[in-house]
Amino acid sequence: MGESQLKRLKASLRAAGITGQQKPKKPSTKAKQSTGKNSSRLDRNVALQSIREEFNPFEIKTTREKHDISGRGRVKGAQGRPGLSKQIGEDNRKRTLLVEMQHRNKAGGIIDRRFGENDPTMTPEEKMLERFTKEKQKRVRGGDIFNLDGDEDQLTHFGKSLGGDDFDTGNEMMLSDDDMLEKRLKKRRLDENAETGSDPDEETRPERKKSKAEVMKEVIAKSKLHKYERQKAKEDDEEEREKLDAQMTDIWALLGRQQPSRISGPGTGANMEPVPGRDEPKDEVNTNINPDRLSQMEGKEDAKYDSRVREMVFDKRSQPAERTKTAEEKVLEESERLRKLEEARQRRMRGEEDSEDEQVDGDADGDDELEFGDAAGYGLGRGIPAAVLPDRTGDNPDELLDGDYEVSEDGYVDVDEDGVVDGSSAEFSDDFDEDEEVETGSGDEEEDDFLADLMPSKNGPRDSVPDLSKLRGDSNADQLAFTFPCPQTHQEMLEITDDIPVTDLPTVVQRIRVLHHPKLHAENKTKLAEFSSVLLEHIIYIANLAPASPPFVPLETLIRHLHALSKSYPERVATAFRTHLTDLHSNRTTGDLTAGDLVLFTAIGTIFPTSDHFHQVVTPAMIVICKWLGQVPPASIERLGMGTYLVTLCVQYQKLSKRFVPEAINYVLQALSLLAPAPQTPLPGNFPYHESEEGLRVGKIKGWTVRKITFADLFREREGEHKRDTEHTLMYTLLCLLEELLVLWAGKKAFTEVFEPAAEVVAHLLGRECKGTLSKSLKNKLKTTQAVLNTYLTRARLTRRPLELHHHRPLAIKTYIPKFEESYNADKRSYDPDKDRAQLAKLKAEHKRERKGAIRELRKDNSFVAREKLKEDKKTSKEYHAKMAKLTAMIQTEEGTAANEYKRQKNR
Amino acid sequence: MPAQLITVDSKSVSKKRKRTGAVEKSRKDGSNKAAKPASSAPSAEEVLELEAAIVESPQNYNKIVVLLECVQNSPGNPELAVTSSVSLCRAFCRLMVKGSLSRRKTDDEAQATIVVWLRDRYKDYTRALCGLLNHQDPAVQTAALALLMRLVREDAAHLKPVGDELYFPHALFGKAVKALVYAEELDESVKDEFVTKYLNQHDDIRYSFYIAVSSLASEAPLSASTLSHFTDTALSLMVALDRPPTAEADLLDSNYAIGDPPSSSRKSKAAILQKPAHRKLLQETWLSLLRLPLSPPNTKSLLLTMSSRIAPTFLRPTLLMDFLVDAYAAGGTTALLALNGLFYLIATKNLDYPNFYPALYALLTRDVLHVRYRSRFFRLLETFLGSTHLPAALIASFIKRLARLSLSAPPSAVVVIVPFVYNLLKKHPSCTFMVHRAGTGEDRERWRKTGLLDCFDAGEVDPMKTGALESCLWELEMGMTHWQPNVATIARIVGEQFTKERYGIEDFLDHSYASMFNAEIQKSIKKPPVVEFDIPKKIFFGTEVEEDALAQENTLLSLWSFE
After folding, report:
1. CA atoms A266, A267, A272, A275: torsion sign
2. What ranges does the record list as Basic and acidic residues composition bias (chain B) (predicted)?
3. Distance from A455 to chain B by nearest Cα, in Å?
4. Average pLDDT of A546-571?
5. Residue B495, pLDDT score
6. CA A42, CA A39: separation in Å to the nearest integer?
7. Is the pTM for the entire model greater than 0.80?
8. Are B421 and B494 in contact (CB under 8 A)?
9. Three-state secondary structure call for residue A10
């Protein structure tokens, strides 16, 4: 770099061959001569330009590095030529954007594709010459100008052939058929050639050039042949079509459609069924001649066809009819349905559905920051202080009614002719989406059938429950009114049923349900929903009327009606149940229960799935039951009986889910200990034990035989003998319950712990102190119970294994050692071990870069456009001014001339 | 009746009248009402006249006897009793002021006799008043109490022996307290009044009260029936003492009867004014009371207040130990409550209780999860078992016992037990074998043949020897299938990985059936509840044909008949 700027310039100029001694004379080649002068000038300019740039220090921009980083290599963009890149950008824009700008708002235009038009290096003479040769060559190549098959010069429209000689068929719809035709023709030609054994190519192969006349002859022959072939093909097609037309009626029949009534002709004729509306003499005549021709003659054929086609467009797609199913299929379907329902039940039993409601996540959040602390995750509520909160279930039940009933719209029970609610044939509303559609599809008809079945029942005198009528001898159902208003409050219900015997209630309810079927009126939905809660209230009311002997026959039917209603209005019915439970919980859980309460629990057990992990009605009901069992001391035989009933319900509820109910076994053991003729000391197990003031211990009774305990036993006044009978029966029932519990919880891990005390209690009952008082049949029962207990216990002991609850993968110990990169590379951008994440980051960076680039480019484009516009504006305004100046000058000249003329005239 | 005496003492009474005017006024309403039924007995006016006569001249002292008769012998006429006793009170007060009741050296024989006689009447009168405390009518009781307290004040003011500036009529007050405590008809309102107006207001009354109660307690109680009544009332009064003197709390600094101490030097000597004396007396009173045979409810109420109110008043709380240990040894709920007091002693007074853990273990009875004090017990249990230095065998016994109890516990108790056991297992990792014990192949073979023999001995008293460490917590596994969904969910934590450090037991303590029910019922129905899809064929009746088949699946039908 020791040389001066000037010296370097000179040197480079010389190196580029611009100054100094010229290069030796160019070798004399013709090609060079033609373009040499031009190209050398161009080269010179380029070279000069580059030298200029090289020596302009402002053209190069370098970014100075603050710190030198070893091993990084060259940094991109450390040295740049802003001028150059700007220039390149400008040029690019001129080439693209400017052109676009100029073409904006302009349509059409001619693109000059003449040879060499845009080539500045060609002289006009050369251009002309080239064009001429091109044209000549084209002529020679396109020799077969009269060839009809010629592909090259075919007229096209949008790339499609304009059809040439196929115009006579003239049907645009056949366009695609044309191609087929073409192919067919070609194929036929080939076949013919094969037959003659001569190859068309072979014929043309001889070197001798054909004379023009020959060629022309050949061409003409060929075209004639083609024409003939085309005609033949067309005829074939016509034939085919006619055949199809003849079969049209069959097709109509196949389509399963009624023939459009407008269409006359072969359809009716073929079926030999004279259509009444069309029996006209004209038809008679017409049937003799070809109907096609006739219609053709009438000029209707096409119109008819078109109209048919158009009609078909609007036809519904045919739906496959429901195939009659075979017996096996029905069984299969039924079993599939049951399987699905069972699966759903299992899911609910495991509590999987409610996972979003009860988040079981004890470890999640900080210790005691939350309102309920650790207990918060378990949905236990606020604990005892919450007990004082007023219950708000009763305030506005209508709010809960707003939900849609689509799902359960069809949840009606078939009431067959005898009025017996048939559970199995009932449509059910469940939560399967796939089933829903089927239901709504087929539901309408069945619903109508359901109504149709029921409507006549209003006309003929019919009893609600036939076997009941047998029992009672006669029924006055025929004296019942046929129409009832839909009661919206229990008061209304009472008014309606005021003088109706309880046994006729099912009929009344059934009639109310039919009369206010949701299909009949829009408001009936809400009415029936309200009615369902009234019905529940009434059921309890009826049961409470005669606690000793509630009319179970109508009650059963009523509960089934309620069940059916609850399918349609689950929320309303559930709310009603919950209201009753709240009432029961707040008012009656410290004393005796009423018959209505027991019926309520029974109804819950049948209407709702009791095996669910959580259920809006069953869970509160269980809480109430267990609270009663656990907290109300069994002070009297009545209470013991109620408790026994509740325990039975517990067993019933847990039949499927087999959950553990400590209160149930506690109650059974406590009741047995209380009933035992002699107190047991020490008491086995840990069940709570309240000695009652009233003597509950079983007394002696003669001739007691095994009998089922009756509901009436709970509410009967009892003295002496009768009391003892009840006690014995109770004890018998309790023993049965104990066995039920054994079966229910067999296989549980803590089986032994639960039932060992029971074995001791039973042993005590069989012991010396108690033996005397118990009757023989009861002792037998005790012995069987003991045997069963011992069997189960032995088995449980044998199958007992230690707990192995913690087969968890051991947790990794957290490490806090900082992470070092073994092979660090400055160029490597990320060390993310997660490939997907790394890729994503890369993509994001790229996107960002691109975005920035695009923004930059757009800005530059904008400024370019502005610049160009300004330039143009300046240009136009300059032109305008120049023009105006010119005009002014011209006018002035003319004026001057005129003035001179005038002066001259004047002077003259 | 003593002989009637005629004495003359003519001093002006106008001044006294003025002083007692206010009292008179207030009493007047009552006496006016009692005016009518004066057939044999004197009417209200006559009573007033008698009173005036008594005060007027010593000659009329015999009228005292008349009035006294009225007070003593009018059970059917409470108004008369009240008026006459009020009049007598006024009369005696004036006489005291006059000095007629106090003996003077200058008195001659006759005067001395009069004083003695008057004093006897005074005693009679106070006795009668005490008797009135057992009157059926609460109004009479209130009046009697007020009069007695007034007499106490006057007594202290005017009958004080020479030289004793801080005289308090302990004897009189003691009589009143005795009557109060033994009165079987005593109304609650009177008791309240006594507590709020006197006991909780004045130091000297308290002091005297302590003396009275302790002497009464140390006297051999008369019979079982009166004893229980005595303890009931005395304890309720003692417990009702507001702000008793403790190490921190000072005296009330207000006296009822005794005048202000003349100088600070004297004050320091008088026991009645000093806190240590008060405390010592109070402690003695308590001890004497606690030595009496107490009924269970009394013991419970005492134990409930033990750590908060009684123990802090003691100069030496360790003296309570006997009582607490006895209560603790009694077992049951009493022991549960005694725990609190014991804990107080152990924690603050360094009490060493050798058989503490066995006794604690013995507390885990069948009832412990059902009683009202469950949460209190668990709080203490958490404290007692909180140490990591306890032997694993002991902890295992407690865990196993709790698990066993959970089998018969209400859901609200299971909810406590599970996190509690979790915390214990977390703190004592050697106990985790109870939830996870994978045997060797040899073991498995043995188990397959004979089943696993549970080593836990539920009857063993010593928690170190129960063998619980070798057992397993099958009971908690049972809880995972509890009918209450939330309980089942909580029970599952035992089977999951023990990642949480500990559960705050406090959050699980306050639950009950009611709170659980409310929590459930307050959840709004978000999605329609699932309804059983098949309407059952039979709810109450089984058809004859299917009877047997149904009985298999329907417990209700198989056990109950609904005809």
Report:
1. negative
2. 21-31
3. 23
4. 85
5. 87
6. 5
7. no
8. yes
9. helix
